Amino acid sequence: MQRRAHPGPREGAFVAPPALTTVRARTLFTPLDTGGRADTVTRRLAQAIRLGLLLDGERLPAESQLAGQLGVSTVTLREALATLRTMGLVETRRGRGGGSFVRAPDDPGRLERPLRLLSLHELTDIGDHRTAIAGTAARLAAERALPADVTTLREHAERLRGAAALTERRRADARLHIEIAATAQSPRLTREEMDLWSEIGDLVWLPMESMDVAPAARDHDLLIDAIEARAPERAREIAERHVAVETARLLDLRLSLHRG
Amino acid sequence: MTQPPTAPPPTTQPPTAPPPEAGGPAGPGGEHLLAGITALIERVLASVTEVAEAMTAVAAAARAGRRPLRRGDLAALRPLVRQVLARHRGFAAGAGVVLAPDALADAPRCIDWWWADQGIGRLEVDLDPASAEFYDYTTTEWYREPARTGQPCIAGPYVDYICTHKYTFTVSVPVVDDGRFMGVAGADILAGEVERMLLPGLSTLARASGRAVVVSGNGRVIASGTARILPGTVLRPPGPVPRPAGPGAAAGPLPWRLLSGPALPRAVTSPAGLATGGEK
To answer: What is the ipTM of this complex?
Structure first.
């Protein structure tokens, strides 16, 4: 999802960039640009359900109304609803009292559902992609950082350390990695990190109950130390190892879902 | 991307003076090379100053009327901000005002910023400090510097993933009412446009003298006439970055420097061949 241009001056018609998407209904209902937006609508609704903005059993507004609120056509919305049904996040009942209903039973495995949708190969592939982006971003950041950039990175690392809730952690983590790519002075790598985190950010901190923030925080400190020391290769190695550890953990978790 | 209507033709101003003999600030040729971009940025600065003055007037009016300044009062500035964006279309990609914490009675923080590409839209960011995605603009260079010095500032280049999504400079001017710092007015300038204006002169100079780069105040390369030193990298000479002595290569109010000649600080040491070694 990215900032979109609108045909004319229009207050408030702004779609937040990925990973910075505000977890609020107002963002949920920020009009989207038209055309081919089903994926974005799906992601937005799925996130709203996972974050509890839309509650289990809640009836979604009528299709035309919801499509209007999201600023998409009913065709696009139907496409998104079909995907959400496949994901088990929405149920559609026919007839009197029918409509689309949110399905978000308060079971502990609920957050792991998106992980079930990914094959081991897909998870590996995401890991490879992240390694390429995060490793290069770290190396270039170490070459190009100014002291003020390092200060900013430390602030974001600190924010993650203090984050208790899942959404808070995921956002702080995403923000730190996006800042590293920005420190690399690369709009493209920054965009890649934003896209990657909007795609996999939900997964990195699963399962929340057993996740300790300390190991990741330690990795981040080492990484920022390397950036500050202008040690590009060390920064790259630390970033790649960090992604490898997270990917391995997700692969284990994915396999355990099968055993369960 | 269209050339802003106000842009002087940069390509018609190659350096006229002989290239400087060795390293450090370029000679009088630098003035010409930076003249076009300086004039253009000064025009943006003048526009931003207009917005800052309008903001001051809004704050002063509220003060005179003994009523608190509110978010709604900022609406009065928007026609001017739109005008500014139209005036610098293709060069300035965003503009607006950003309020100091507690400058408004009904919002602890406020950013009234507008971006332009095909249309004009409002930038929306999370300003709740309790939120994990909180955008703390008070830590940005373009806010902090005018707040600290009371002077206009040109921040960057930096990757602006909040508004323009591009490599960007931000010109900002402090807004002061009755001695109180109220925030800043500013505009985002696309780094690609700046480079485009500088490149013809720089490449000519580099052909003559080996290397020619324009660096920001903190040593970041803005534009270069040679592929051996690239924009975005940091020039880290062994010792302080040479400052232009006398009228030399200083770009007027811009804290940018034109450096040229074979003895330029080496910017290429890493295996990737892009960045620099040594302490700045």
So the answer is: 0.74
